[in-house]
Amino acid sequence: MQKLSDLLGESKIFADREVLSPHYIPNNLVFREKEIGRIERALAPSLKGEKGRNLFLYGKTGTGKTSCAKYVVKEVEEIPNSKAKISYINCKMYNSRYRVLNKIISDHLPTYSKRGYGAIDLYEKIANWIEEDNKTLITILDEIDVVKDLDDLVYTLTRINSDMKAGGFTIVGISNNVSFKENLDPRSLSALYETEIVFPPYDANEIYAIIKDRAEKGFKKGVMDENVLHYVAAAASQHGGDARFSLKIISRIGELAEEAAKEKVTLTEAEEAVKIAEKDIVYEVIASLPEQQKIVLYAISKISKEGGAYKKLITDGLDRYIFSGEVYKHYKSISESVKKPPKSERWYRNYISELEMQGIIKTFDSGKGIRGHTKLIKLMYPADKTQEVIEKSIFGLKGVG
Q1: Tens-binned pLDDT, residue by residue, of the chain (401 aa)
Q2: CA distances in angstroms from 98 to 123, 140, 151, 174, 366, listed in the order given
Q3: Which residue, 58, 172, 297, 366, has most beta carbons within 10 Å?
């Protein structure tokens, strides 16, 4: 067992832990030069004082969307004598129109942020502040799809440019969910006038290069083995090319080696770190799902745990699958119980496809012989934990059903 004095002493494993953090923005974002260039070109009109287009960045978790946006923010902030101002807003924390507007006020007009103004007052103060000396305000809304009153937010923000005689306002939305805009009201959607950039997943070679660069800076010389890096890159590529996942793994590898009082990491620590990270990351993904997908997943986990009307369908003697039609009925019931209007079966099928793409569920067609031709669903993670995560992340969902 390590003593406190050992923990406070110089690490034999780490040179700079911060470099291994997913939140660390390196000076050079490898394999994302094209995406950074597109962001820069999209924002250039706004930075020149013109009415710019709004910009949306899409891609799975760990594909570099936030890092690239923050990289360009840093570039903007370094432009001398620029009238461009930036607000970066994590919508998981600021998840309503009022909270977003108040965060913008807090960033740039802090004396007004705690005075109890309503949303319209905040909106007018922001517009007047931009207009007074022809400023440009670029507002980055990370995980924009989790905002509860997204229609109201988008409609409000897109009105600013038409209400001002000088200056400009640009939205940069970031989302893991490419289809989230399809839920927007037509009036909000038509006002967006946006450019879109889709971030592809990293492949195994790209992940390897990313973590090799970080490991060289983050670990002491001779600590990290090349075979370990290849192993981590392969594991991350199997999880959809998630660079954040790979960085969590190598950081955890170092911690495990340190706990074992080793001076070099091995595949033993790598294998254990991958198992730990796989459990952690999936629940982070579940917590960040759009609300309707969470409710569908809650229905799946509930039936998986309690059994449905057609109980214990066993495949290969081990795996339990449940009927898609029964999940849809539970989804509708749960949605209504928490006063969330359920979506149509077409939308439900999209949610099932997206959950399967994330690796959270598995589906297959039953073929003939099982209540006709139907889709069967299997939850890939423990139902108890899945339900717990969803209950914590959706207001009013705890204890439903």
Answers
A1: 556 555 556 799 999 999 999 899 999 999 999 999 999 999 998 888 877 789 999 988 889 999 999 999 999 999 988 889 999 999 989 999 999 999 999 999 998 877 778 999 999 999 999 999 999 999 999 999 889 899 999 999 998 988 998 899 999 999 987 777 877 888 778 778 788 999 999 999 999 999 999 999 999 999 999 999 999 999 998 877 889 999 999 999 999 999 999 999 999 999 999 988 887 877 877 887 888 899 999 999 999 888 765 544 444 444 567 899 999 999 999 999 888 889 999 999 989 988 887 778 888 886 555 555 578 999 988 888 888 889 887 755 444 54
A2: 9, 16, 13, 19, 47
A3: 172
Tell me how far apart the alpha carbons of residues 248 and 27 are, in angstroms, rounded to a whole number.
20
Nearest to 35 by CA among 205, 214, 196: 196
N-term to C-term CA, the chain: 46
Q: Tell me, what CATH number does 74's domain have?
A: 3.40.50.300
Domain boundary among 175, 198, 221: 198
Q: Looking at the structure, do residues 282 and 371 belong to the same domain, yes or no?
A: no
Question: Could you read off the pLDDT of 192-245 as tens digits, one per residue?
Answer: 878 899 999 999 999 999 999 999 999 999 999 999 999 999 999 887 788 999
| Strand pairing report for 375-379 and 194-198 | unpaired
Q: Quote the strand ranges of 116-240, DSSP E.
A: 136-142, 168-175, 194-198
Q: What is the CA radius of gyration of the chain?
A: 24
Q: What global pTM score does this model have?
A: 0.77
Residue 187: CB partners within 8 Å, gap ≥ 6?
155
DSSP class of residue 394 equals S
Overall domain count for the chain: 3
Residue 251's CB is within 10 A of a number of other CB atoms, namely 21
Residue 126 belongs to what domain range? 33-198
Tokens found for residue 328: 């849809």
Q: Cα-flanking dihedrals φ and ψ of residue 175, to 5°?
A: -150, 145
Task: Copy the structure tokens of residue 304.
Answer: 């998986």
- Based on the domain organization, do 221 and 270 belong to the same domain? yes
Instruction: Name the residue among 214, 276, 279, 222 with its Cα closest to residue 243.
Output: 214
Asked if 92 and 146 count as a contact pair (C-beta separation under 8 A), the reply is: yes
Token pair, residue 78, equals 């370094």
1: in domain: no
| Distance separating alpha carbons of residues 178 and 197, to the nearest angstrom | 10
Closest CA to 172 of 278, 79, 68, 244: 68
